[in-house]
Structure formats: C-alpha cells, structure tokens
Amino acid sequence: YFYTHFLSDFTKHYKRILGGADMKLLKSIDVARIAVKMAMSTREEEEILKNKYWKQGVKVAAVDYGGEYVNSISKIIERAVVAAKREGIIEDTHAAEGAVAGAAHEAAIQVMNKAMGLNVGGKIGIAYADEHLCVCVFFAVGMLNLNEVAIGLGHRSLK
User: Fold this and answer.
1) What's the burial of 92, exposed, middle or buried (CB within 10 Å: 0-12/13-18/19+)?
2) What is the CATH number of domain 26-157?
3) Which of 4, 58, 99, 127 reaches 20 to 30 Å from 48, CA-CA?
4) How far apart are CA 74 and CA 108, in angstroms?
C-alpha cells in the first residue's frame, strides 16, 4: 500500500502525461517566467510563444494596454479576464474569473509607485499550467518621451 500510494503521489505531483510524453509539472516560478515572457513579447513573438507553450501544456495569452494609470486599473483587470476567456485559458466560472482578476489586480498594484498620475503603455501577459495562474504587466510609464519601465506580477492557484 505504501509503495503504491507513494508512487501515485510522485506521479501526480512531479509528472503528467501530455501527448504520450512524460513532462515535469511546472512550478509557480516556471509559470511566472512564462507570463513575463508573454508580457515582454512583440506581436510576432507572441504567436511563436503561444504555439511553443501550447505544445508544453501551458495556456497563454497577451494583450496590449495603454492609458492613464489611475483610471485604468479596472480596465487592466477587465482586459486580463477577457483575454484569458477568449484564449481558453480559463472556463467561464466565478472562481476562474476571480483568480485572473485577483492576479491582474496584484500585478497592476505593484507598478503603482512609478505609475501614479502618469500614463502607462505596454502588455499584459497571462500563463496557466497545472494549478498555477500568473498575470504579468510590463509597462512603459511616463509622459511624452520621458519613460520609466515597470513590471508587476500576480499569482493565484486555480484547480
């Protein structure tokens, strides 16, 4: 019994079957890294990354955003939720939408000190694998051509 139980847990927590190939379960830091890459990607790179990560069993999305920061927090959250639903990252459930909204809010709040009262422009990256959902915002912050760069990252667990 112990051996069977141990082997089952080992398989469940450290491997998964995807297309007949054994793959290591991704940790939260791995999924976060993917969300950051999606947020930093160009539109051309975005399509390449989507295909690459889809083959690895990671659902990803990215969406552009720009506007005045303070008035935009709710729009940033809304864009993240809509993109996650559109790309099939999450199901249309209250818990899934709440997880994306919470992670997006956390990411947006992390850039607040640099962005308060200024304009932001950049990209929102979303990644979901196993039970880890990460949302990253990667923004240029400023006015005219006087820009600073800010990045924020939020994580939620979603089964």
Assistant:
1) exposed
2) 3.40.1510.10
3) 99
4) 9
Helices assigned H by DSSP within 94-142: 94-110, 112-115
Q: In this structure, which amino acid lies at residue 72?
A: S
Rounded to whole angstroms, what are the CA distances from 34 to 3, 64, 65, 80, 115?
Answer: 35, 17, 19, 15, 24
Radius of gyration of the chain (CA): 17
The percent of residues in the chain predicted with pLDDT above 90, rounded, is: 79
Per residue in 86-129, pLDDT (tens digit) is: 999 999 999 999 999 999 999 999 999 999 999 999 999 999 99
Residue 39's pLDDT is what? 98
Domain residue spans of the chain: 26-157
pLDDT at residue 47 above 50? yes
Distances (CA, A) of 92 to 3, 97, 130: 39, 7, 18
User: Cα separation of 126 and 154, whole Å?
Assistant: 10
